[in-house]
Design goal:
The chain is of the alpha/beta class and about 300 residues long. α4 packs across α5. The protein is globular and about 60 Å long. It starts with a strand and ends with a strand.
């Protein structure tokens, strides 16, 4: 593999411009790293002649003009599979629970194509939630997409925590929790609660919390979908996919669009909003391999 070389010419908020010295440009979504700073990650967002514009996925304060960058030859990959169960990781698959490295060499790209339509499977099988009001008034269906919509402080996260516990205990599959733009305290409390209830060994948590930049928050949801897809397609396990919350995913995309200076659509949101949402949702479907039941919270500002 030929290493593509370049250097940083400018840094603007969460965007870095890199001038490429090699004869070819890195691919879109390819990762650029610095030989002297291995924890620097830039993701190629756009190309123009010998320049590429990159999303900064790491600490932007470490970047400086003239910093040498090399192509990694691949897009962002994370560890997947049963070895990730019971663990809390960040966007790069680095553990956040002080339990040592994940013992697996199996990784998968956070980007993938939606499954072919002839493999998608519908279900009308009920999925008991263990909460009487829900099971009687609005019963869940296995493989469905379920949304909890409400303002701040109404109990969306608490309800999701109860469902994660109740359903994980009863069903034979695994659960994936993607924390997108929520508070660090909530992620910590969820992890401790799952450990106390002895269901953590069947749950993997991937977190891109409120302290992370918009690029990381946007990609964490896609990384969570990658974990769910591996369990569904390779290990053929039913998956409960939780995302908290979907509004923060939209908000992260809006922040990046503003920084990039793209023209907004109606109501000020990013022009690519529909594509970003549909691409993620189309990956979270049930197939002939196994079911993916998606439960998502949506914050509605007052």
């Amino acid at each position: 593999m030929n290493v593509i070389r370049g250097f940083v010419t400018s840094v603007h908020s969460q965007i870095a411009e890199v001038q490429i010295e090699s004869s070819e440009l890195p691919d879109l979504n390819e990762i650029l790293t610095c030989p002297g700073e291995p924890d620097i990650y830039l993701e190629v967002y756009s190309q123009s002649q010998n320049m590429v514009k990159c999303l900064i996925l790491s600490n932007s304060t470490k970047l400086y003009r003239g910093m040498v960058m090399h192509s990694a030859g691949t897009d962002l990959k994370i560890p997947v599979g049963s070895a990730t169960l019971g663990r809390a990781v960040n966007l790069f698959g680095v553990v956040q629970d002080s339990k040592g490295k994940i013992n697996t060499k199996v990784t998968s790209s956070i980007y993938s194509h939606t499954p072919p339509l002839n493999t998608v499977k519908m279900s009308f099988e009920p999925l008991p939630s263990g909460i009487k009001a829900i099971d009687f008034l609005t019963p869940f269906t296995k493989g469905a997409k379920i949304g909890f919509i409400g303002g701040a402080g109404v109990g969306k996260t608490i309800l999701m925590t109860e469902l994660l516990h109740n359903i994980t205990l009863k069903h034979q599959g695994v659960s994936v929790f993607a924390g997108v733009g929520e508070r660090i305290r909530e992620g910590q409390e969820l992890y401790q609660r799952m450990e106390e209830l002895k269901v953590l060994e069947r749950v993997v948590l991937i977190l891109g919390q409120m302290n992370e930049n918009a690029a990381v928050r946007l990609r964490v949801a896609q990384a969570g979908a990658t974990l769910a897809e591996y369990f569904r397609d390779i290990e053929k396990k039913d998956v409960l996919f939780f995302i908290d919350n979907m509004f923060r995913y939209v908000q992260a995309g809006s922040e990046l669009a503003t920084i990039l200076g793209t023209l907004p659509s109606e109501q000020g949101y990013q022009a690519k909003l529909q594509r970003e949402i549909s691409t993620l949702e189309d990956r979270l479907v049930s197939t002939v391999n196994s079911y993916v039941t998606s439960i998502q919270t949506v914050y509605v500002p007052a």
